[in-house]
UniProtKB/TrEMBL annotation:
Its EC number is 4.2.3.1. PROSITE patterns: DEHYDRATASE_SER_THR (PS00165). One of its GO terms (biological process) is L-threonine catabolic process. Pathway: Amino-acid biosynthesis; L-threonine biosynthesis; L-threonine from L-aspartate: step 5/5. There is a cross-link at residue 182 (Isoglutamyl lysine isopeptide (Lys-Gln) (interchain with Q-Cter in protein Pup)). This is Threonine synthase. Residues 63-366 form the Tryptophan synthase beta chain-like PALP domain.
Length: 397
């Protein structure tokens, strides 16, 4: 097992704490050789550790809250309305309510292997919530840097409740990440943002589960929200690993969805570029993807280009409309960033990008109650009435 720069190709030993390439400054990826039959997974518990041979940590030291094994649901009502074969991967069912738990399970396990005593991250919310829980599980000190006033209350409460030291930075996420990275490079903490290549190894198991749930057939498209761009990179890596293991015969197109107020990757894809122009003051109601300078953009662009996929942006209005639609049509409640994938799907259909009958998987990254204020504001207030049966009968009709 080694780490390799995704841009210049320089290799590094996997037992070295390093986050980016010393030569060109780009992000790293973990490479490991795994030769197993897919039959090895049969009979194992349905969580992400059923794929332990593909995870670059010692399973005997794993820090786990039984993450993974999330619901994979065929959306019959939306499939009929949108004329596609739609499935959703409900990552909000992970222990702390988001896909981040997969990455933190592997990342915090790696922290124990490195014998560190403190872990840290910058976060728009979900990362801090997840890291705080897994650090508590491992008995490690946890420090998180959050952009002041920009984190949904559900996520902030989780980080604090699990015992993290929470520092509110009077700036945006990108500045918070810059600061926590300085602490990491100074040896004060082990950084578990998605710039850490081991964290993404946990998140690639989303791809493994999708493929196994589809009886080892690839969907035509996988659509997901993009913030710091780790998840689209991880899922594509998982797809390729199962393809190279001859578990599947085809690969899907990867489609990344960003909010209009934070869409540097979309702009790069429009121009077929290999780099991005950061957004200085990103703004969107979808706080989980309110990131103007995604550190994993090289991996994300590679995933999109290699898979013949695309990226597009959606408005806050489209995101909130899709959030309500998913809840009312399928009974699935997600935070705004998750609904970006559904908003993107609808836009792709309206634009004629997707054909009728194509099999599509939308990744729903976080639970509805991560951002309860948005959900409450989207609904009518409860009607206060007297406890009178006849009166209530008239109202109900």
């Amino acid at each position: 097992m080694i780490m390799r720069c995704v841009v210049c190709g320089k290799e590094y030993p996997a037992d070295e704490i390093i986050y980016t390439c010393n030569e060109c400054g780009s992000v790293l990826e973990v490479l490991m050789e795994t030769e197993v039959s897919k039959k090895i997974f049969e009979g194992r518990k349905w969580n992400m550790w059923r794929y332990k041979e593909f995870l670059p940590v010692d399973e005997s030291k794993k820090v786990s809250l039984n993450e993974g094994g999330t619901p994979f649901i065929k959306c019959n009502n939306l499939s009929k309305d949108l004329k596609v074969d739609l499935y959703v991967k409900v990552e909000g069912s992970n222990p702390t309510g988001s896909f981040k738990d997969r990455g933190m399970s592997v990342g915090v396990t790696k922290a124990l292997e490195f014998n560190v005593d403190t872990v840290g991250c910058a976060s728009t919310g979900n990362t801090s919530a997840s890291l705080a829980a897994y650090a508590a599980r491992a008995g490690l000190r946890c420090i998180v840097f959050l952009p002041a006033g920009k984190v949904a209350l559900g996520k902030l409460a989780q980080a604090m409740f699990h015992g993290a030291q929470v520092l509110s930075i009077k700036d945006n996420f990108d500045k918070a990440l810059e600061i926590v990275t300085k602490f990491a490079l100074g040896g004060y903490l082990y950084l578990l943002n998605s710039v850490n290549p081991f964290r993404l190894e946990g998140q690639k198991t989303i791809a493994f589960e999708i493929l196994e749930e589809l009886n080892w057939e690839s969907p035509d498209h996988i659509i997901l929200p993009v913030g710091n761009a780790g998840n689209i990179s991880a899922i594509w890596k998982g797809i390729k690993e199962f393809y190279e293991s001859d578990f599947i015969d085809e690969k899907p197109c990867m489609i990344g969805i960003q909010a209009e107020g934070a869409s540097p990757i979309v702009e790069a894809v429009k121009k077929q570029k290999l780099d991005i122009k950061p957004v200085k003051n990103p703004e969107t109601v979808a706080t989980a993807i309110r990131i103007g300078s995604p550190v994993n953009y090289p991996k994300a662009l590679r995933a999109i280009y290699e898979s013949n996929g695309t990226a597009l942006s959606v408005s806050d209005e489209e995101i909130l409309k899709a959030q309500r639609l998913l809840a009312k049509k399928e009974g699935i409640g997600v935070e705004p960033a998750s609904a970006a994938s559904i908003a993107g799907l609808i836009k792709l259909i309206d634009d004629g990008y997707l054909d009728h009958g194509e099999r599509v998987v939308c990744v729903l990254t976080g639970h509805l109650l991560k951002d309860p204020k948005i959900a409450i504001n989207a609904c009518k207030k409860p009607l206060e009435v007297e406890p009178d049966f006849n009166l209530l009968k008239k109202i109900i009709g």
